[in-house]
Amino acid sequence: MARFILGGDIYIHQSRMNFKPGFNGKEFYWHSDFETWHVEDGMPRMRALSCSILLTDNDINNGPLMLVPGSHRHYITCVGETPENHYQHSLRKQEYGVPDHNSLSELVSRYGIDTATGPAGSVVFFDCNTMHGSNSNITPAPRSNLFFVYNQVGNSLQDPYCHQAPRPGFIADRGPVAPLAIAPSGISEPLPSIHIPAPDHPAAPDSQGHDPHNNYAYSRENRRYLHEPLRGSHGKYSARRSRRQ
């Protein structure tokens, strides 16, 4: 399914377990995964997808994942400089790479908030740029989810878009990457590439470099994204916590 959605060969960029024990499971503030993967890992484009496998029941009370549907259409530039060894703290508490209140308020006003609830064994897929977070868990019931992040092979990591050294390989696979062998049992041939029709865009890139085959455009020269601006936000895809700001 991840390969179909991303439209090509994929590999696992990151995997982890999110464990939120009963009574004292901590909240995790709103953020876009891509913002961190782009800035700190050097992921060039939004060609990644998160898969959350629910290991326990996730209900409305035990701190389920909250998502802003439609927020993946907007890249929110975050302010502040990346601290040294930020990864040692960011997976427990996100303090850098979080949206400003105006941008978050506009996103929620425009799209609302959904909660990903379901029984153990359910699977949730969401875009790498979707704004998401979760509340604390003060109920007796633990909430545990297993995460796999799939990235398109052609979107493998480059140098980080900030002045820090790359994060360790156990946080983000820097390669060399090989496509996952995804084929029905008994078939050794790789599956053919999948073409997903592009959304409605101009027939050719415009003067600002918009690519008709993507819902965002990327310029290698200034490492900046162009996208639909949001009121109260910076309106362009640029690396936060970077000396290039």
Structural commentary:
It holds the Pfam family PhyH. Its cofactor is Fe(2+). Keywords: Dioxygenase, Oxidoreductase. Residues 233-245 have a biased composition (Basic residues). It comes from Marinobacterium aestuariivivens. The structure is a single chain. This protein is α+β, with helices and mostly antiparallel strands and 245 residues long. The chain has a domain at 2-160: q2cbj1_9rhob like domain (Jelly Rolls). It is built from four helices and eleven strands, in the order H-E-E-H-E-E-H-H-E-E-E-E-E-E-E. The strands form three sheets. It has a four-stranded antiparallel sheet. A four-stranded antiparallel sheet has the order 2-7-4-5. A hairpin with a 4-residue loop joins strand 9 and strand 10. The longest helix has 11 residues, at 101-111. It is globular and about 45 Å long.
